[in-house]
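User: Please fill in residues for this 184-position structure.
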C-alpha cells in the first residue's frame, strides 16, 4: 500500500467518507491502483459479449417481456422518416465492497437521432409529476435546512451538518431521499 493511504481499523483501504471528510474542505488527491480497480467496470463492450454471458443474457430478458406482453408491433417505416435504432444500456450494481450484486439491462431508443415534430410529437417518461421542478425543489430544500440551522458542506453539496461533537447531526440528501444520523 502506498504511504499516506487512509485505512480503516482493520487495516483495509477506506472506501467511504468519514464525518470529517463531510464537514471539512478537502484537497483533490490521486487515486491509487486499489481504488481505481474498485471503479473499473466489467461491463461488456459489445452486444455479442453481453449475449455470451448468462448473467447479462438473463438481465436482457426485458425484450422477451416486451414481446410476450404484446407491447409493440412491427410496422413499415413511413415515407420520409428515419429508422431510430435501439441499444442496450448495461449497468452493474455493486455493494459497498465493490462486489457485483446485480446485472441491469434496459433497451432504449437512440433518441439523439430524432428530430422534434418530425420523428416524434411528444415525450413520455413514467415519472411522478411534482408541482415543483427538481431544481426548484432542491433550492427549497436547501433554504429550509439552512433556516433550521444546518450548514451545507462545501465538498458534498448534498450533505448538511448541525451542532458539534456528540451533538452533531448529519443530514444527507439524494434526489428525493434523506438520511439523518447523529451520535446523540
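Assistant: Residues filled in for all 184 positions:
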Amino acid at each position: 500500500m502506498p504511504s499516506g493511504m487512509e485505512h480503516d481499523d482493520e487495516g483495509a483501504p477506506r472506501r467511504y467518507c468519514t464525518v470529517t471528510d463531510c464537514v471539512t474542505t478537502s484537497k483533490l488527491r490521486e487515486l491509487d491502483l486499489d481504488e481505481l480497480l474498485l471503479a473499473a467496470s466489467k461491463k461488456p463492450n459489445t452486444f455479442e459479449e453481453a449475449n455470451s454471458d448468462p448473467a447479462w443474457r438473463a438481465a436482457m430478458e426485458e425484450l422477451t417481456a416486451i414481446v410476450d406482453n404484446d407491447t409493440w408491433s412491427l410496422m413499415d417505416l413511413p415515407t420520409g422518416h428515419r429508422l431510430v435504432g435501439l441499444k442496450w444500456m448495461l449497468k452493474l450494481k455493486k455493494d459497498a465492497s465493490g462486489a457485483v450484486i446485480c446485472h441491469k439491462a434496459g433497451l432504449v431508443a437512440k433518441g439523439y437521432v430524432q428530430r422534434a415534430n418530425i420523428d416524434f410529437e411528444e415525450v413520455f417518461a413514467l415519472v411522478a409529476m411534482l408541482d415543483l421542478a427538481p431544481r426548484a425543489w432542491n433550492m427549497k430544500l436547501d433554504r429550509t435546512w439552512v433556516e433550521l440551522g444546518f450548514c451545507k458542506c462545501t465538498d458534498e453539496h448534498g450533505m448538511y451538518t448541525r451542532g458539534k461533537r456528540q451533538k452533531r447531526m448529519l443530514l444527507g440528501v439524494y434526489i428525493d431521499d434523506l438520511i439523518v444520523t447523529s451520535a446523540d
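For context: The helical segments are 19-23, 33-39, 47-51, 54-59, 62-68, 134-147.
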